[in-house]
Amino acid sequence: MSTVSLRRFSNPDTLKHISRAHLISLLSSYKEYLQKRGFKFPGSTSSEEVDYESLINIFMAPKEDTPSDLSEMLYLIDEMSSKEMMDKLLNATKKKGIDFRPGIEVDPADVAVHLWLTDRTILEETHTEQQLIRPRAFSAFASTVSQLPKFLPPDENKLIAMQTKMDDTFEEKKRGRGSRVFTYQHKDECFF
Questions:
Q1: What is the per-residue pLDDT across 82-121, written as a single tens digit (0 to 9) for each?
Q2: Burial letters for 95-115: b for 16+ Cβ neighbours within 10 Å, e otherwise?
Q3: Residue spans per domain, the chain
Q4: Which residues pair with 189 in a beta bridge?
């Protein structure tokens, strides 16, 4: 089984800086799985201490039955839990007109978790946009047409059709469904 490298979620201090309510809410969908792995799930109003070490051990040693969406969620939140990414997330909420004002002493991991819980699209879009800045591969094609027509980005229906076609292919190859396609216009370029 492949593992995900969690730089920040392997540190108990990072988890301790996430608000207790946010952390419990984030993990509540996986309560049965986490309990099966030995994590004592604290109550939401309890003063009982969260066993951060136990959580880290579960996160860092996934098993065959680890829910894939749990791994994906942890990876995305971990990637977006730096101060630089927090600034980008806060800018993204402002651009979308969302009134999100965390406290002065807020931790980047808590901001990422909060956004996952309230508007995960912002987290996904900002993460994807960062991947454009540091691409892993690049392909370019020259056109034989001297005057290219004006490019119009695909509408929502075309994006859904692209996602469906990719999902069908991924499912056929035993990779699962859940594709998301985002478009980013930058000057005269369009990134997907």
A1: 888 888 898 888 888 877 776 667 788 988 998 999 888 8
A2: eeeeebebeeeebbbbbbbbb
A3: 12-133, 156-191
A4: 186
